[in-house]
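Re: export button greyed out
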Amino acid sequence: MPDPAAQQQTGSRDDLCLDRSRCLRVRFNGSDCSHCLEICPAAAISLEQGLELDRERCTGCLLCTSVCPTGALELSADFLACVAQFSKVPEPVLGCCRTKEQANGWLACLGGLSDEHLLYLVRQLTGRLTLNISLCADCPNSSMLPFLQTRLKNLAAGGGCSITAIEKADAVSHREENVDRRSFFKSFRTSLFQTAAVIMNAGIQNTERRSDYTSKRVPERRALVNRTVQQLPTEKGQQIARLFAHQLTFSEHCSTCQGCVAICPTGALTTKDRHQQPVFVPERCTGCGLCVEFCLDQAIKLSPAPN
Ligand code: SF4
Ligand code: SF4
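Workaround output, generated via the alternate export path:
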């Protein structure tokens, strides 16, 4: 039987990392991005004065982290620690903070499992991975469930492990090989995000980051895709890469001002020659659209890559 106290517990805000300087609304007041606002079931996000999170209202479902294109709202890197440990456990179970006793590893809430996270799990593990969703239906964060189920249904990775979400607690087969969420944290962060220019200000709680506005960083979800693609044979890697890729072209109206290079939060646009159109680096692009919104010449065309 689950601990009654745990039954009251919902997602923890500790797994939600906030970095206002990455938010499109903060970087450019002409941006109309509102993915986080639209998906948040608790009305805990406001964008009128830049990105603000009402921590009293936030229930920690982490859905916003699964849609934010820039890493302004992002899952903390404990996920990678879980995956590293899972590879040592036959048929691991991933739970949330309410089902952590019936899981080998857990996230605050499974609502944070984006398409990119699921892809990464499928490709990193073999055999079967169970998602323990036995307490999700009656959880205050239950609105994340349809999103998770749709993502699982649309998961097009193929190969690797199979992921099964199990709703009945007695159907969850869990071996007592618990995962220490923190033990691999440091090494994984270092290896995956060694190029990230994240400045952690003294005095800011560890659920907040404050990057330099001029720094460029590939958001963690995009980094998971890149990491997965790099580990696959070329043809399969290209197939997966196309699912997350965007095409970007400049028209003859481009005045080569390089403004898009400056505004792009991920470093997907770079200057090779100040008198030439910028160079596009597709594996860094998340399709956030900020360059399109910002371009005074209306010279940028962005679209998902054809599959
Ligand atoms: S989804 Fe991300 S970039 Fe868009 S408004 Fe929300 S925090 Fe800003
Ligand atoms: S190139 Fe444009 S769409 Fe891609 S990440 Fe940069 S600003 Fe966003």
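Residues 248, 264, 266, 268-269, 285-291, 302 surround iron/sulfur cluster (ligand 2) (CB under 6 Å). The button fix ships in the next patch.
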